[in-house]
Amino acid sequence: MANRSWLLLVGVGVVSAVAAAAAVALATNIFERKQEAKNPFFRVVELTDDTVDPAIWGKNFPLQYDMYLRTVDQVRTKYGGSEAVPHTPTQVDPRSVVAQSRLEEDPRLKRMWAGYAFSKDFREERGHAYMLSDQTFTERQQVTHQPGACIHCHASSYTLYKKLGNGDLFKGFDAVNHLGYFEARKMVDHPVSCIDCHDSQTMQLRVTKPAFMLGMKRMKAAQGVQDYDVNRDATRQEMRSYVCGQCHVEYYFKGPEKTLTFPWDKGLKIENILAYYDENPHKDWVHAETGAPVLKAQHPEFEMWNQGIHASSGVACADCHMPYTRVGAQKISDHHVRSPLLNINHACQTCHHFSEAELRSRAEALQERTFRLRNQAMDALMGLLDDVKKAKAAGKTDAELAGVFALQRRGQFMLDFIEAENSMGFHAPEEAARILAQSTNILRQAQVLVRDPTFKPEIPDQLPAAEGDAHPGPGVQGKTVGAPSGSGEPTGDGGAPVH
Ligand code: HEC
Ligand code: HEC
Ligand code: HEC
Ligand code: HEC
Ligand code: HEC
């Protein structure tokens, strides 16, 4: 960003020089002021490509650092935020406050994940400050052995990868993936830090997490773009989402090396992802009630955002979750990353000229609809589990139920995809409704098939891979709609005002 606006302004300066010396002076003056407004900081300390500790960066950027520290706040919204629940510290789990248990809120989740660690402990996610300790102390660590690959999205891992790879980020990534979790855990100290999203010298946004770089490269290759390098080829507005896509995505651990992999070779739509898992056979676990080989979906915020109207209008994650905020005379990006519904004034009203109450009720209406459809799909899954249990008790074999298992795998993944996506449908309401309608349909057909083996299930409205790729948002196609003008100046509006 800095580079481009700098070049532009230098260009302006050069043309002016030919015209009049006074104009050069003016352009330079404007340039300096813009730099000042954008990045007014005193270099108190020298930062390097190895400075991990955010407190050190905070000496140069105290405003961003103060906001970053506020991610400890816990406030609940209707469908998001989180609630601070007291926890009695124990030897294995010293946390004194946790977030509410989602398993207690909806016990059907335990049956959906029967036989998997998620059925033991799954909580509402909370602020970035907690990511490393919540991962370390979740009960899921006690019921199963997790790999070092988990660290990628819960710690500042960039310098560790460089160190273990002797300067080669990807070699270091490979080395950490297959370590045991606690072995890798000893080598990191901080949750996501400044260095994971920023270049220490220019403060430009950058991606530092190899799984995202590789996932994007494979997806672009499938679209005919060879050798895509996210840090070289993405626009600034794209980077304002890509830094979040480093972690807020569906993933799995591939092969015995436990390579953290984003299943995007065929695109970001759920049909593309399911087709990927068909071609690269993978199961996360075997369902304890039915015996079906099933998949767990994880936080596909990036994938779902990409299907929504905001992405196709060029609105980035940072526009809503890190909106520009005035602090004194300065406009800075709000590093208190949280639910935008706790900050509607900055997060939405820069673009939407409605009252706060109106915007909240529109967002909640979309969430309410998603929640109802999710509950219908969840009930369909419970009905299927009941029927399979009965059929097995009556002597049906796994071989006889193979067709049912395939439908359970597909329908359950579709439900879990929306369940695991943390906006309760807001990021892409139409897409969430479409997926949940399909999920319910597939799970109910599976139930019919249990009862009547001659029934011929039909999976409706299946998108061929090509169609799934036909409407990628600006985040995928390499073109940016509604990005801030080339000035690089914080404007706070990724698109034109809308009503
Ligand atoms: C147009 C604004 C907008 C954009 C763009 C956007 N989000 Fe959101 N996001 C929301 C809203 C609104 C919610 C619902 C918050 C709630 O229910 O409290 C939400 C929820 C979330 C949550 C759960 C927050 C919570 O408090 O539970 C996460 C995580 C998230 N978004 C990540 C992302 C990521 C990553 C991107 C980009 C890939 C993104 N969002 C893009 C508006 C946006
Ligand atoms: C691709 C990035 C990524 C990887 C890899 C990853 N996580 Fe997470 N994790 C996230 C994100 C994003 C959230 C917040 C959103 C959510 O909870 O859905 C999260 C939330 C969590 C939470 C808090 C909510 C909950 O589930 O109770 C725990 C605990 C957790 N992860 C543990 C783990 C463990 C253990 C592993 C390794 C098996 C792991 N994570 C691997 C990105 C990742
Ligand atoms: C290094 C991985 C990583 C990156 C990068 C990352 N997140 Fe997160 N995010 C997480 C994890 C993990 C959690 C859950 C932490 C927990 O529950 O302990 C989380 C939680 C959140 C929440 C929930 C906050 C709350 O109070 O409930 C929001 C919103 C969010 N992230 C948005 C974003 C946005 C927007 C970006 C990009 C600007 C981003 N994240 C970048 C891993 C990441
Ligand atoms: C999850 C990614 C992420 C992390 C972690 C992060 N930032 Fe940022 N930061 C951003 C984004 C996005 C912007 C907006 C940049 C843009 O629009 O070009 C930004 C902008 C900035 C800017 C430019 C001025 C402004 O506020 O817009 C500074 C300075 C900055 N961040 C400092 C920090 C510091 C210091 C830390 C650590 C305490 C930090 N950032 C951590 C994503 C991050
Ligand atoms: C950077 C500008 C921008 C920001 C910030 C933004 N929006 Fe939007 N929003 C848009 C645009 C553009 C559209 C598409 C409008 C259209 O074409 O009709 C849109 C559409 C919507 C819609 C209609 C969705 C649909 O499916 O038809 C809702 C509801 C909405 N926004 C709510 C919000 C909320 C709530 C926030 C804050 C969390 C928010 N927006 C933040 C630009 C923005």
From TrEMBL:
It is found in: Cell envelope. Residues 1-21 form the signal peptide. Residues 167-281 form the Cytochrome c domain. It comes from the Bacteria. InterPro entries: Cyt_c-like_dom, Cyt_c552, Multihaem_cyt_sf. CDD domains: NrfA-like. It catalyses: 6 Fe(III)-[cytochrome c] + NH4(+) + 2 H2O = 6 Fe(II)-[cytochrome c] + nitrite + 8 H(+). Keywords: Calcium, Heme, Iron, Metal-binding, Oxidoreductase, Signal. This is nitrite reductase (cytochrome; ammonia-forming). Residues 456-499 are annotated as: Disordered. Belongs to the cytochrome c-552 family. The keyword Cell membrane does not apply. Gene3D superfamilies: Butyryl-CoA Dehydrogenase, subunit A, domain 3, Flavocytochrome C3, Chain A. Pfam families: Cytochrom_C552 (PF02335). Residues 489-499 have a biased composition (Gly residues). Its main location: other. The keyword Transmembrane does not apply. PANTHER family: CYTOCHROME C-552, CYTOCHROME C-552 RESPIRATORY NITRITE REDUCTASE. Its EC number is 1.7.2.2. It comes from Pyxidicoccus parkwayensis.
